[in-house]
Amino acid sequence: MDWSHYRFRTLWALPAPPGTVYDVLERAEDYPRWWPQIRAIDRLDDTSGRITVRSVLPYAMTFTARATRRDRDAGVLEIALSGDIEGWARWTVTARSGGTLVRYDQEVRVHKRLLRLLAVPGRPAFRANHTLMMRSGRRGLLARLAEG
Question: How many domains does the chain have?
Fold first, then answer.
């Protein structure tokens, strides 16, 4: 098993129309305004940016995200990731009774040296760190949607 390989899936039920949710998620440069763990996004060009994230554990990760798919009709936003992590992430936004279901999928390999050294003993803490970051993201997105 490659202990530096991770797959994540998160589901968020949100009380807002899918188009509205998609529009907020599409504006990645605004994430730091409503998602505290997204510390910075520096746009590199029309389809990519450098992102720095830090959750509960005392380490930050920096990586480049490049848009590979933006399909509003299908409700899909997908990016390729390289840097401290390498892989991909995808938002899928679909209608559901009373609002929207957002599915976040991510598959990555960690390249950050410290996280690779601590891959086996730290794995449960790293996964918990990701879970807490995603919970905070949901709360922030709910607040952003409530603002209109």
Answer: 1
